[in-house]
Amino acid sequence: MHITPLSGSRREIGEAHGRAHAELISHSLEVYDRLFQDFVALDWAGARRTAERFLPMIERGFPAILEEMDGIARGAGLDFEDILTLNCRSEISLTQASGGCSAFALNRHGTQWLAQNWDWRTDQLHNVVALEINGLDAPALISIGEAGMVAKIGMNEHGIGVCLNAIRSRTCGEGLPIHVALRKILESADLDAAVAVASRDRVCSPAHFLIASAEGTAAGLEVHPGEPGRLTPEDGKVTHTNHFYARTATGQVEDFPRQDSRPRLARLDSLLRERLPAEETIGEAKLFEILSDHHGEPLSICRHLNPAQPPEERMETLFGVVMNLTQRRLTLRHGKPCESDESLTVQFGPEPERHDD
């Protein structure tokens, strides 16, 4: 996988994104057309109508991103409403469909790490893109996500990083759509500004954002339309899968996690405790070993095809990512981290470094 550089005004960034990944964006629309029909009985026209209700929320909380979405549509030869719908896909579908994903923040020997696997439908594997965005009005950032979407998982030049865990819930209120909120977090200058996206702007549907900074601070934010639940590091660690467990959040939102969410969280805690002793120096390879764990398969941290599940329910790990925020370095393994022979490393510095294998 290669990184796609995007720069200039919001419109220029969007148009370049749309042109570079027009085919993948069209494939993403096909994937979510099927998903909306599978889970919420909406065809694409119905999904577009549903997405319109989120437009005023974005206009209030992050109006500049709408210009970029319009640019993506122009570059890809699509309607603005198609790109809006793609970027609101969680809000449209997550009442019924939730992803996997196992994430953790770890502070060790003065280095702040952030890592996760992203588990989702297999038909999105080849629609994953890596974007390096250098805008005129925001910090430079790296986003690993889906073609046509404004952000997902990544970090910026200030050393602010964010991971995502999907939460299945019927709650949907006022605030920024999840992926729009992730982009605003990635444009934050510091951790306080990143946290304010959840606590001040709010997020209209439930999710977990794991945020950390190069300064060695981290916070798990169980976001929803109300005051987010906040998880603070214990022994330098914050871990999360696909259920809420901060009392602030569980007292306000009902979620419906899959059966593997709690066992995966327990396994993640155990691996970080047992395989990474405090005195040991660690690097990306050690953390990818954690993300490659198959205990409890097929419902494991590294998730492979489970043919016993109904076709529309099947998920696999589509990528693993490890971020060294202290050194502003992100390493991506596209596909399952246990078997991927393709990696991408990007590092911010005086001259950003890139390495593709």
TrEMBL record:
It comes from the Bacteria. One of its GO terms (molecular function) is acyltransferase activity. Residues 336-357 are annotated as: Disordered. Pfam families: AAT. Residues 108-337 form the Peptidase C45 hydrolase domain. Keywords: Acyltransferase, Transferase. This is Isopenicillin-N N-acyltransferase-like protein. It comes from Halomonas fontilapidosi. The lineage of its organism: Bacteria, Pseudomonadati, Pseudomonadota, Gammaproteobacteria, Oceanospirillales.
